[in-house]
Design a protein that fits this description.
Number of strands: 2
Distance between the termini: 45 Å
Mean pLDDT: 80
Radius of gyration: 19 Å
Number of domains: 1
Structural class: alpha+beta
Shape: flat
Order of helices and strands: HEEH
Helix content: 25-40%
Length: 98
């Protein structure tokens, strides 16, 4: 299902995402070396739905355009482990049982 966000909610989502990135110290601002170009980025929006089909929440992410990146030059380490809390609980339960 494709839904468009109006400018006001999209601006709110972008502002919140930027604040979260700054709070988590996701990046460092540095001077761009000569003969180098900055990696582009774009906003990706997603609508999360309830089981009944109603809108649960809107999400926005700022992502780098990977097509312009070169491994070892622009990116060095991109692994970002993510686990759902239920997965962690199951693993802890298994450990406690054994």
């Amino acid at each position: 299902m494709n839904q468009r966000l109006t400018n006001k909610p999209a601006q709110f989502l972008r502002t919140n995402e930027i604040k979260a990135l700054e709070k988590n110290q996701t990046w460092d601002l540095v001077i761009l070396p000569q003969n180098k170009s900055a990696t582009g980025c774009k906003w990706v929006y997603k609508v999360k739905f309830q089981a009944d089909g109603s809108v649960k929440r809107y999400k926005a992410r700022l992502v780098a355009k990977a097509s312009t990146q070169q491994e070892g030059i622009d990116i060095f380490y991109t692994y970002s482990p993510v686990a759902k809390i239920t997965t962690v609980k199951v693993l802890l339960t298994i450990v406690v049982i054994k």
